[in-house]
Design brief:
heterodimer; A: alpha+beta; 6-stranded mixed beta barrel; elongated; B: alpha/beta; 6-stranded mixed β-sheet; 10 strands; 28% helix; globular
Chain lengths: 787, 232
C-alpha cells in the first residue's frame, strides 16, 4: 500500500467520530430513498401481477336489477372483450361474542372459474362448489381479524333471514385490495369483509330469481374505453344502471393507485431532504477537514505531489465516507422497506407481494452525496493548492477582525471578552454560520413535518367525531323507505332522537366537468350530523339549491351562484338543474348536500329515507343495537365511536413509528452538524484555546469561546426550522388528494416543545462531549506542536 | 550552473500589509556545493530558498534550473521539478502525523523515479531503529532527521534546508547537520541551508549573507569543517 493511501486510512481512523456522524446522515437519506422506492415499486409490481393473474375488469357498473339475457347484448358492444354479470349486496353478519356491527359484501360467483373476471385468489382452502347453498369464501383480512378459517362458520342476515354459512376458503380480490367499509368510509377489515358465494344460492337468499345487479367487463386491446362505457350506459339505463366507471375510478383501484402515487411522490421528496442535508454536511465538514490539513497539503505539494494526486487523495476520503453511509443506508433501507411493505400488508388485501429493490435509485443517491462531498473537499483543496506551497506551509496569517455590529452599537460591555471573541468570529464567517444554522433548521423541520401531520390529523378526527358526527349510530336501510322507518327507529326504547337521511346517486355536471357522487338530503335543523364551514360554524342546508364539499367545487370549477346539472342515477334518470348556494368544509369524500324536503320535492317523491342518524341514551347502546339488529329493512348500522377508535389505532401505530423515526433522523443530523463543527473548531483553535488557559481563562470561559458559535447556530437553526417544518408539514398535508381527506394544518405546543427538545438535547449533548476534550487540552504540548 | 536566480524580487501581502522580502537578488548554486544562507529574521533568506525550490514564484526576475526557466513554469512543471530534482527540509519538519517514520519517507519514494529504499534513507540519518514510530513518539531531532531522510530518499540533485536546526537544541542540531553533511558527501547532493545561526556557516563551501532582501556578502570557505567541530 502506498504511503499516501496509508495516510488516508489513518485519517479515516483519526476522524472516525466525524466520519461516522456524517456517514449516518448519508445513511438516513439513502435509507429513506431505498425505503420509499422499494415501497412503491413493490406495490406497483404486486398490483400489476395481481391484476393480471385475477383478470381484473376494466369497467364496472352497478344496476337495480336486470335479467341475465342482457349479458350477450353487452358482449356484442364493439370493444367489449368479456362480460360478467353478478349479484352484489351488503348484509349484516353475526359472530358469537362480537357486539360491534359487522357488515359483509356478498359477491356471486357465476359460471366456470376460468371464465370469471375479478376471480378471488384463494390463499387457503378452496373456492365454492357450484350449486352449494351455504359455502362462502372470505376475504383474507376480515378472516384474519375475526379468526375465521376454512371449516369455520359465520351467520349472515340475507334478505331478512339469518343463514349459517360455511367458510371453505380464504381469498383476496383485485376489487377489494383496499376494502372501504361503506358505512364508515374507512378501510376497516375488522368490521367489513367480502364474501363470495355461489350465484344461484346468493340470488335465492337475496330474493332475486337469477337476475343480476352488477356487471364487470374487460375492454379489448385498442378499443376506446370511453365509447364502450357510453354504450354500456345506454344499454343498462332501463335497468337502473348507476353509470359505468373505468378501473381508474373503481374504489379499491383508485385508493391503491393513490397510495402508490403517494409513496412515489414521497420517494421524490422526503429522501432528498435528507440527502440534501447530508450532501451539505459532507461538503461543509470535508471542506473544514481539508482546510485543517492546509499545512500537510502544502508539504505534500512541496514533496512533489501534483494536484491530481492530492485531489484523488481527498476524493477517496469523501468516497470512503459516502461508501460507508451509502452501504449502511442501503442495508437500513432494505430492512425498513421490507418492514414497510409488510406493515402495509396489514391494510391491503394484496397477496402476490413482489419485493422490488431499485439498485439504480440507491446508487444515484450515493453518487449525489458523493458529488456534493467532492465539491466541498475540492473547494478546500483548490484554495490550498492555489497558494504557493511556501505560504501554505506557514500558519495562516491572523484573520483581519473588525469590531462587530453589536460592538458598534456599544452593547459589547454586556458580553465580556469570551462573548466578544465568539461574536467577532461569527461576524467574520457569516456564510459558515448561515449554512450551519440551515442544517440545524433542517433537523428541526424534519421533526416538525411529522408532528404537524400527526397533530393536524388528530385535530381533524376529533373535530369530525365530536362536532360533525354527533350521532351514536348510523343506520342504513336495505332500500329507500318511507319516512315511517325513521319514526320506527325513534320508538325503539333508549333512542333519544333519529334523524332521516336520503342519499341519491347522481352525476353532477358543470360545463364539460362531471363527477359521480351522492346527493345527501339532510334535515333543516340537524342536531346529529352537522355541516360546518372552515371556521367550524354550523351551516344549514339552503331551502333551495345545493351545498358542495369545497374540493368538489374546485373539481367542477363552480362558484357560489353557478348552476350545475344533476342527473339522478336511479330509474327515470331525472335531470335536476341545481343552484350552488355555498360550500361545506367537510373532512372526507365529495358530497352535495340539500335540504331533505327540497330534495324530495325535486325528485317528485313522497318523503323517502335511505338511512338515519340516531342518538341513544347513555348506557342504552347495547340494548338499542340488539333491537335495531332485528328490525326488518335495516341493512346495517355502524357506531362512529368505534370507527373513530379504529381509525385512530390504525393511524397512531404508523404515525408513532414515523415520529420516533423522524426524531432519530433529526438527532442524527443535529449531532452530525454540531459534533463536526465543534470538533473541527477544537482542532483548528486548540492553540488559541490553550493560550487562553495559560493566560488564566477558566475552562468555562474557554468552552464559551469554543462552543459559543455552536450555541448561536443551534438557536438560529431552531428558530428557522420551526416555521420551515410547519410549512413542509402543511405542504405534505396539502399533497393528500383532497377527494380523500381535507386536513387543515395545526401544530400543538407539545410537539413544538418535543421538536426543540430533541434538537437541543442532541446538539448540547455532543457540544459537551467535545468540551470534555477541550477541558483535557495539554497546554504545553499544544503550544509546542505545529501540526 | 545548476541553479541560478537573476534580479529576483518578491513582494507579498501579510494580512493588510505589503512586505518586500527580496529586492533584485542575483544568486547561483553550483553542482556539489554546500552553501549556507545567513541572515537575521526577515532578511529574505527563506523566501529566496522557496523561490529556488519552486515553492513560490518571484514577483519579478528569473530562476533557471540547468538553463530552463522555472520562474515562468506552469504548476505541472514546478511539481515535476520538485518531485524529481529538489528535496526539502523545513524548520518544523512538516511530517505527516498520521504516518510512521518509514511511511513518511515512503511517501516520497512512492512518487520518485529511482528512489533508494526508505529504510536505507533512514539508516543514512541514523534512524534505522525507529522505522515504525509515529512523529509524536519521536524527539524533535529525530523528526528532523526523518525529514532529511524523506528529502534525500529520491536522490535529489539539490537539498534545500530551511532553518533545519531552528527548533532544536545544540546537541540535537549537531546530529541533524551531520546527517545533512553525510548526504552531501556520500550522495554528492548540492545543498543550500538557510539559517540565522552564523557558526553553521563553518561547514559550508560558501556563505551568502542577506540583509533587508539584498545580498550583503558572498564568501568562499576553502576549508569547511565537520559539523561536530562547530560550536554554538
Amino acid at each position: 500500500m502506498k504511503a499516501l493511501d496509508r495516510k488516508l486510512l489513518r485519517d479515516l481512523g483519526r476522524l472516525r467520530g466525524q466520519v461516522v456522524t456524517i456517514a449516518l446522515v448519508i445513511a438516513c437519506g439513502i435509507a429513506q430513498l431505498v425505503t420509499f422506492v422499494t415501497l412503491y415499486r413493490s406495490l406497483e409490481a404486486s398490483r400489476d401481477t395481481f391484476y393480471a393473474d385475477t383478470r381484473f375488469a376494466d369497467v364496472f357498473v352497478h344496476l337495480d336489477r336486470a335479467p341475465r339475457s342482457i349479458l350477450p347484448r353487452l358482449a356484442e358492444i364493439p370493444g367489449v372483450a368479456r362480460v360478467n354479470g353478478r349479484s352484489v349486496g351488503d348484509f349484516r353478519l353475526e359472530l358469537p361474542n362480537v357486539t360491534v356491527p359487522l357488515l359483509g359484501r356478498f359477491v356471486s360467483l357465476d359460471g366456470p372459474p376460468d371464465a370469471r373476471l375479478d376471480e378471488p385468489f384463494i390463499d387457503d382452502g378452496r373456492t365454492v362448489t357450484p350449486g352449494s347453498s351455504n359455502e362462502v369464501v372470505v376475504s383474507e383480512l376480515f378472516a384474519h381479524a375475526r379468526d375465521l378459517h376454512p371449516g369455520g362458520s359465520i351467520v349472515a342476515v340475507l334478505g331478512g333471514h339469518a343463514v349459517t354459512l360455511r367458510v371453505v376458503g380464504i381469498a383476496t380480490s383485485p376489487e377489494y385490495v383496499i376494502a372501504v367499509n361503506p358505512r364508515s368510509g374507512f378501510p376497516d377489515a375488522s368490521t367489513f369483509g367480502i364474501f363470495w358465494m355461489d350465484g344461484d344460492a346468493l340470488s335465492k337468499a337475496m330474493g332475486e330469481s337469477g337476475e343480476i345487479d352488477d356487471v364487470v367487463l374487460t375492454v379489448a386491446a385498442g378499443a376506446d374505453e370511453a365509447n364502450v362505457i357510453a354504450a354500456v350506459d345506454r344499454e343498462l339505463e332501463p335497468y337502473g344502471g348507476t353509470g359505468a366507471i373505468p378501473r381508474a375510478q373503481q374504489g379499491s383501484a383508485r385508493s391503491l393507485d393513490s397510495k402508490i402515487e403517494q409513496y412515489r411522490s414521497m420517494s421524490k421528496f422526503v429522501p432528498f431532504v435528507f440527502l440534501g442535508v447530508a450532501a451539505f454536511l459532507l461538503n461543509l465538514v470535508l471542506s473544514r477537514i481539508v482546510g485543517a490539513q492546509r499545512e500537510q497539503i502544502a508539504t505534500l505539494k512541496a514533496l512533489g505531489y501534483g494536484t491530481g494526486a492530492l485531489a484523488r487523495h481527498y476524493a477517496l476520503l469523501a468516497l470512503a465516507i459516502c461508501g460507508l453511509g451509502g452501504g449502511l443506508g442501503v442495508l437500513l433501507g432494505l430492512g425498513e422497506g421490507q418492514l414497510a411493505v409488510r406493515s402495509l400488508l396489514r391494510f391491503f388485501n394484496l397477496p402476490v407481494l413482489v419485493f422490488r429493490f431499485d439498485a439504480a435509485a440507491a446508487i444515484a443517491g450515493v453518487i449525489a452525496s458523493f458529488v456534493a462531498g467532492l465539491l466541498g473537499a475540492f473547494g478546500a483543496v483548490r484554495r490550498t493548492i492555489r497558494l504557493p506551497a511556501a505560504e501554505a506551509m506557514q500558519p495562516e496569517p491572523p484573520e483581519s477582525f473588525k469590531p462587530t455590529f453589536i460592538e458598534r452599537l456599544e452593547l459589547d460591555r454586556l458580553l465580556g471578552v469570551a462573548g466578544r471573541m465568539v461574536l467577532r468570529d461569527v461576524e467574520r464567517h457569516p456564510v459558515r454560520l448561515a449554512l450551519s444554522a440551515l442544517s440545524v433548521a433542517m433537523a428541526t423541520s424534519i421533526m416538525l413535518v411529522g408532528t404537524t401531520m400527526t397533530d393536524s390529523l388528530e385535530r381533524a378526527i376529533t373535530n369530525q367525531f365530536t362536532r360533525v358526527e354527533r350521532e351514536d349510530l348510523t343506520v342504513a336501510f336495505d332500500r329507500p323507505k318511507s319516512a315511517e322507518a325513521v319514526r320506527e327507529l325513534e320508538h325503539v326504547p333508549g333512542v333519544v332522537h333519529a334523524e332521516a337521511q336520503r342519499a341519491v346517486g347522481a352525476k353532477l355536471t358543470h360545463g364539460w366537468r362531471e363527477r359521480d357522487l351522492a346527493i345527501l338530503g339532510v334535515p333543516r335543523n340537524p342536531q346529529l350530523r352537522r355541516l360546518e364551514d372552515a371556521r367550524g360554524e354550523p351551516i344549514r342546508p339552503p331551502t333551495s339549491g345545493v351545498l358542495l364539499s369545497r374540493p368538489l367545487a374546485q373539481i367542477l370549477d363552480v362558484r357560489a351562484g353557478d348552476d350545475v346539472d344533476a342527473e339522478v342515477l336511479e330509474a327515470g334518470r331525472l335531470h335536476l338543474p341545481l343552484r350552488v348556494e355555498g360550500f361545506v368544509d367537510d373532512f372526507s369524500g365529495l358530497s352535495a348536500y340539500m335540504d331533505l324536503p327540497e330534495l324530495e320535492r325535486r325528485l317528485g317523491e313522497p318523503p323517502t329515507v335511505s338511512g338515519a342518524f340516531v342518538s341513544v341514551a347513555r348506557g342504552d347502546l347495547p340494548a338499542v343495537t340488539a333491537r335495531i339488529d332485528r328490525l326488518p329493512g335495516v341493512a346495517s348500522y355502524s357506531e362512529p365511536a368505534l370507527d373513530r377508535a379504529q381509525f385512530e389505532t390504525q393511524m397512531s401505530d404508523s404515525l408513532r413509528a414515523m415520529t420516533v423515526m423522524l426524531a432519530i433522523f433529526a438527532s442524527i443530523i443535529a449531532v452530525g452538524m454540531v459534533f463536526n463543527n465543534a470538533r473541527i473548531a477544537l482542532a483548528m483553535r486548540s492553540r488559541d484555546l490553550a493560550t487562553l488557559r495559560i493566560l488564566g481563562f477558566t475552562r468555562g470561559e474557554v468552552a464559551t469561546v469554543l462552543l459559543g458559535e455552536q450555541a448561536i447556530q443551534l438557536v438560529l437553526g431552531i428558530a428557522l426550522g420551526l416555521p420551515l417544518g410547519y410549512g413542509l408539514g402543511a405542504a405534505a398535508l396539502g399533497a393528500i388528494p383532497p377527494e380523500l381527506f381535507r386536513v387543515p394544518p395545526v401544530l400543538a405546543a407539545s410537539s413544538l416543545v418535543w421538536a426543540v427538545t430533541v434538537v437541543l438535547v442532541s446538539g448540547i449533548g455532543c457540544a459537551l462531549w467535545v468540551r470534555r476534550e477541550a477541558d483535557r487540552l495539554d497546554l504545553v504540548s499544544v503550544l509546542k506542536a505545529r501540526d | 550552473m545548476l541553479l541560478s536566480g537573476r534580479a529576483l524580487t518578491k513582494r507579498y501581502l501579510m494580512g493588510d500589509v505589503e512586505v518586500t522580502a527580496l529586492r533584485e537578488v542575483d544568486f547561483d548554486l553550483a553542482e556539489r556545493e554546500l552553501v549556507v544562507l545567513l541572515g537575521p529574521s526577515g532578511s529574505g533568506k527563506s523566501t529566496l530558498l522557496n523561490i529556488l525550490g519552486g515553492l513560490d514564484r518571484p514577483t519579478s526576475g528569473v530562476v533557471t534550473y540547468r538553463g530552463a526557466d522555472m520562474s515562468h513554469a506552469d504548476e505541472a512543471m514546478l511539481t515535476r521539478y520538485r518531485r524529481e530534482h529538489v528535496g526539502f527540509v523545513f524548520q518544523f519538519y512538516n511530517l505527516i502525523p498520521s504516518l510512521t517514520a518509514r511511511e513518511n519517507v515512503a511517501l516520497v519514494a512512492d512518487i520518485a523515479e529511482n528512489p533508494m529504499k526508505a529504510e536505507e534513507a533512514l539508516a543514512l540519518v541514523g534512524l534505522e531503529e525507529r522505522l515504525d514510530h509515529f512523529p509524536s513518539q519521536l524527539s524533535g531531532g529525530q523528526q528532523q532527521r526523518i525529514a532529511i531522510a524523506r528529502a534525500v530518499v529520491k536522490r535529489p540533485e539539490i537539498l534545500l534546508c530551511d532553518e533545519p536546526t531552528g527548533a532544536l537544541d545544540a546537541a540535537t542540531g549537531h546530529l541533524v547537520l551531520e546527517a545533512i553533511e553525510r548526504v552531501h558527501r556520500e550522495l554528492e547532493t548540492t545543498v543550500a541551508i538557510v539559517t540565522h545561526n552564523a557558526p553553521i556557516a563553518q561547514m559550508a563551501n560558501r556563505t551568502v549573507s542577506l540583509r533587508d532582501g539584498r545580498i550583503a556578502s558572498d564568501v568562499r570557505n576553502a576549508r569547511p569543517c565537520a559539523p561536530r567541530e562547530i560550536v554554538w
